[in-house]
Amino acid sequence: MAVPGRKEQVTVGAVLTVAVELGTQMSEAFDRAPDLASAVVTLGALFARPLAESGYRQGCPITAIAVEIAGENEEIRTACAQAYGAWLEGLALCLRKRAVPDAEAAPLAEVILAGIQGALLLARVRKDCAPIHQVTARLGAMATSAARP
Fold it and tell me: Cβ neighbours of residue 101 under 8 Å, at least 6 residues apart?
């Protein structure tokens, strides 16, 4: 589905706005958690809550746009890439603050974000947040083992 002119600008603006809002929520949730494993679980809950509250109709808004439109529109694809890039940078920074070595922080951030996004899809089609909770519990353990003592 092509998005012409004005609709394209509105979509790009919405993607970037949501990216900032969710990125801030992700950083704040991560910072409030008592430990690294809890921080990752909290990130999953941040995405799981609105999914469950919507009756499993609404997952991550950026993912929905990326899947539906970004493949056909370069400007929107770029905005989605910027959104995910900002989230990854923020998550890597949060991991570094929790003693994950610099060399491991960015790759681990990518695994965590990709894991949560995949779990969101499974949760949506199953109408059950269990995949999010299972994935984030395991990713939290992985992140904990990556951190320096």
Answer: 146, 148
Exposure class string for 33-66: b at 16+ Cβ within 10 A, else e: beebbbbbbbbbebbbeebeeeebeebbbbbebb
Task: Identify the three-state secondary structure at position 127.
Answer: coil
For Cα atoms 112, 116, 120, give the angle at the middle one, nearest 5 degrees: 170
Write out pLDDT tens, residues 38-73.
Answer: 999 999 999 999 999 999 998 888 988 888 887 888
User: What is the separation of C-alpha 104 from the centre of its chain, rounded to a whole number of angstroms?
Assistant: 18
The rounded distance, in Å, linking the Cα atoms of 139 and 133 is 10
Q: Which of 92, 114, 107 is nearest to 30 (CA)?
A: 92
Q: What is the pTM of this model?
A: 0.91
What CATH number should be reported for the domain whose range is 5-146?
1.10.357.10
DSSP class of 24:
H
Question: 16 CB contacts (<8 Å, ≥6 apart)?
Answer: 79, 82, 83
Q: Residue 70 has what DSSP assignment? A: G
Q: Where are the domains of the chain?
A: 5-146
CB 88 within 8 A of CB 43: no
